[in-house]
């Protein structure tokens, strides 16, 4: 996984011109940790790097976007998927969400701006999630510490009552 300031993102788009357009736009917005793929198979082979976000077309040659999503989420559930597609079907959009996509964006003149907005929302959500995990770890450590302190005093108290002295 990438850092929260520069998340690892995969762009999966079989149209080479549109693929380059997305990558260039994201780079101009300050993202530099981007890998580009032209099909779902290559994306899946590289998921072991645990990208934070996969931006992909719905209609891909070979494996379609839904299949990439299902396989990706199975092994890397923390990776977020954003679909970009020329398909404006509500059924398709709902289907992507049903399998765990973060969002579905219909390609138009505002697509790239909406994409950057969605990426920002994902980054904010991941920051909150990581902060919550850190608080939980701290609380667990604190509780364990308190239990050890109580255990120490209980042992000390009962050994003193029973006349047991430490050597």
Protein architecture, described:
The chain has helices spanning 16-28, 40-45, 65-75, 90-98, 111-161; strands at 9-12, 34-37, 53-57, 80-85, 103-106. Strand 1 (9-12), helix 1 and strand 2 form a beta-alpha-beta unit. The protein is 54% helix and 14% strand. The radius of gyration is 24 Å and the shape is elongated. It has 167 residues and is of the alpha/beta class. The longest helix is centred in the last third of the chain and has 51 residues, at 111-161.
In short:
The protein has 167 residues and is of the alpha/beta class.
| End-to-end gap | 52 Å
Average predicted confidence as pLDDT: 89
Structurally, the number of domains stands at 1
Main-sheet strand order equals 2-1-3-4-5
Query: Ranges with pLDDT <50 over ≥5 residues?
Result: none
Largest sheet: 5 strands, parallel
> Per DSSP, what share of the residues sits in E-state strands of 2 or more residues?
5-15%
Reading off the top of the CATH hierarchy, the class is best stated as Alpha Beta
Oligomer: single chain
- Radius of gyration in whole Å, from Cα? 24 Å
Determine the number of helices (DSSP H or I, runs of at least 4 residues).
Answer: 5
Q: What fold name goes in the CATH topology slot?
A: Rossmann fold
H-E string: EHEHEHEHEH
The number of strands is: 5
CATH architecture: 3-Layer(aba) Sandwich
């Amino acid at each position: 996984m990438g850092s929260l300031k520069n998340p690892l993102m995969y762009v999966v788009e079989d149209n080479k011109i549109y693929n380059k357009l997305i990558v260039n736009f994201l780079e101009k917005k300050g993202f530099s940790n981007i890998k580009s793929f032209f099909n779902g198979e290559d994306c899946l082979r590289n998921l072991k790097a645990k990208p934070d976000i996969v931006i992909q077309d719905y209609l891909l040659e070979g494996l379609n976007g839904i299949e990439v999503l299902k396989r990706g989420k199975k092994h890397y559930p923390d990776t977020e998927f954003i679909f970009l597609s020329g398909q404006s079907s509500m059924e398709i959009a709902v289907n992507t969400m049903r399998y765990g996509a973060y969002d579905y964006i219909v390609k138009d003149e505002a697509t790239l701006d909406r994409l950057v907005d969605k990426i920002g929302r994902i980054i904010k959500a991941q920051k909150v999630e990581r902060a919550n995990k850190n608080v939980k770890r701290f609380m667990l450590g604190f509780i364990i510490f308190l239990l050890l302190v109580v255990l120490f005093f209980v042992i000390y108290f009962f050994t003193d009552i029973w006349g047991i002295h430490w050597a």
